[in-house]
Amino acid sequence: MKNDTIAPEILYREKNETDFIFSDNIKTTNVSETKFFKKLKKTNTGNLLVLAGSFLLMIGAAFLVFLLEPDFELLHTNRMSSVLGFTLIIIAIALFIFKGSFFLFNAFLYFKYRSIKSVSDEQLPTTTVIVPAYNEGRLVYDTLLSIAASDFPEGKLQLLAIDDGSKDDTWQWMLKAKEELGDRVSVYQQPKNMGKRHALYRGFKMGTGEIFVTIDSDSIVKPDTLRNMVSPFVVNEKCGAVAGNVRVLNNKKAIIPKMLNVSFVLSFEFMRSAESMLGSVLCTPGALSAYRGKAVFACLDEWINQTFMGQPSDIGEDRAMTNMILRQGYEVRFQRNAYVFTNVPEKYKGLYKMFIRWGRSNVRENIMMAKFVFKDFREGSKAGTRLLFVNQWLKLIMAYPLIVAMFVFIAMHPVLFLSSTFLGILIYSSFPVLFYAKRHNVSESFWAYSYSILYTFGLFWITPYAIATASRRGWLTRG
Hints:
By secondary structure, this protein is an alpha/beta fold. The protein has helices at 30-67, 69-80, 83-112, 138-148, 170-181, 196-206, 225-235, 255-277, 293-304, 317-327, 348-370, 383-397, 399-412, 414-428, 430-439, 442-445, 447-458, 462-468, and strands spanning 10-12, 20-22, 127-133, 157-163, 186-189, 211-215, 219-221, 239-248, 288-292, 307-308, 311-312, 331-342. One of its GO terms (cellular component) is plasma membrane.
């Protein structure tokens, strides 16, 4: 495949199938190249400072814990001598045992997991790809061209792009893609901004494929992604939905995307691999998902009219669709070999808004899942699905007790709290570091430490806040 087939800004490096290099800032003139490399040098220096700072904090904390061992012993003795303290220790031990056992169970499933290999062209089902877009500008053009470059029979592929009432030049970029791709893409414009769910709904109603694939309009897919996404439906008639493997596209531009890139690998390639072995991936991501048409139309009216506490649901459309398909008795699988590279927030404000939206959706859909997960919703064993559900609820139930305990610990023993927390991050985050290093790249893996520090001290409030505001509407990051 030629380098400019996907998009002029992005060069594909054959050496590493998951590594994209941004070249939009590189020009042919020496002056522009000089500016670019100066910017790159400045960025690399900042990256090194963040990573070095993370290591200094964790190593310093480990040494401090060693020095303060008598203080920790005294704290432990005092807790054991009181009823409340002893109770808290028992609860902490129980949670540790559960989480440790859950991790080992996931690890066992991960090692058993295998991606489904692509079926032949003759076996591939007719497929409709839906790309909803709102204020994405040039990005939607790049997305559509990457999809059109897929190794997929043209006669079996229907590509629909829907502008959800954008206020920028998104529609013009869609028309440009239409001009280049001709009949290979159909573009539509909503009369006004109605939300991503309504744009997808229009695509589902117009689609003619046996399988529907939804792709975010700021995402790039690999040439073999589509055929890998739809192959599980061919070999497994019980498969109702498939989650793609999401990586970060803009991880060369800022520190937060670098952190999220490592975090996504653990979330998808480890956690969803394990969930897939249970046939119960809990969320098919908006960036890349595939659905059996029959399963979609069985719940489409309920999905588009879904409400929460009397308000129309305008978030969490991916998790809601996943829940409704699971409830029908279908399996939901993950395809590790189906890559999509998507843009993520580059600043803290965008990051926490994205996490709030995800958190609110998680609260809503866990409530919905509670209505069917302990019933006979499908044939075969349902124990694994129920275990995943219990783990999800445990995170929500413990959100407030943990945050209260944290603030009490800080108020009474600030030095002990900081030293033990940074040491805990060093120990806990070493697994995602090793996992990413083994799967992808050693140097990038260390961002897992920095991400854990950011999450612990900068995003700890997300889940409690999302629970308290679960009924609020709004996408938050659309602009």
